[in-house]
Specification:
By secondary structure, this protein is of the alpha+beta class. About 40% of the residues lie in helices and about 15% in strands. It is built from 7 helices and 6 strands; from the N terminus they run ββααααβααβββα. The protein has helices at about 15-20, 30-40, 50-55, 60-70, 90-95, 95-105, 150-160; strands at about 5, 10-15, 80-85, 120-125, 135-140, 140-145. The strands form 2 sheets. The protein has a 4-stranded mixed sheet, covered by helices on one side. A two-stranded antiparallel ribbon has the order 1-2. A hairpin with a 2-residue loop joins β5 (about 135-140) and β6 (about 140-145). α3 (about 50-55) crosses α4. The longest helix is centred in the first third of the chain and has 12 residues, at about 30-40. It starts with a strand and ends with a helix. Residues about 1-10 have low confidence and may be disordered. The structure holds FE2/S2 (inorganic) cluster (FES). FE2/S2 (inorganic) cluster binds near residues 90, 130, 131 and 134. FE2/S2 (inorganic) cluster (FES) binds near residues 86, 90, 127 and 128.
Length: about 160
């Protein structure tokens, strides 16, 4: 695993053959395969998409569509902790936009980015099933309802310890 092989346009791409073999090259296991790729590499790099497409007999667009549809998949390396702020309608009505702005300023990053210290990645998400208690966020694996700026700051500081 993780051995480089020539990828598209001459780039080196991680070799995910072992994962494809583990799932017997079954295209109906694409989501599980992507989870395994992310577990091994920390994210799902674009450079593995051609190998997955060939191995599963799917188009690159199909695989890309799944990766981008599910917000659990990261397309770039992430920090040790993630903060996911819900941007769906109910949370918008309850003030998630100001929370987003605050988080971006306090962390010094935009959605999808990780500060240079590699500690915390800020990500958008779309409904955490906690709409009545919005704005909602996931800090690591912890679902937080009615989160405000002060609570978000405290949780991030705690996660960084
Ligand atoms: S809209 Fe945010 S948790 Fe449902």
């Amino acid at each position: 695993m993780n051995t480089a092989s020539p990828g598209p346009q001459g780039q080196d791409a991680p070799d995910v053959t072992a994962i494809l073999v583990a799932y017997d090259y079954r295209p109906d296991c694409l989501i599980e395969i992507l989870h395994d790729v992310q577990a091994h590499l920390g994210y799902v790099p674009d450079s593995v998409v051609p190998q997955l497409a060939r191995g599963l007999n799917l188009s690159r667009a199909e695989i890309h569509g799944v990766i981008t549809f599910y917000h659990d998949f990261h397309r770039a390396p992430v920090g040790r902790h993630t903060v996911r702020i819900c941007r769906a309608e109910a949370c918008q009505a309850r003030g998630c936009r100001s929370l987003e702005a605050h988080a971006a300023i306090s962390l010094g990053v935009a959605f999808g980015e990780t500060p240079a210290d590699g500690d915390v990645t800020l990500e958008p998400t779309y409904c955490l099933g906690n709409c009545a208690l919005g704005p909602a966020a996931l800090v690591g694996d912890e679902l937080i309802g009615m989160i405000d700026e002060a609570r978000a700051d405290a949780l991030v500081a705690e996660a960084r310890r």
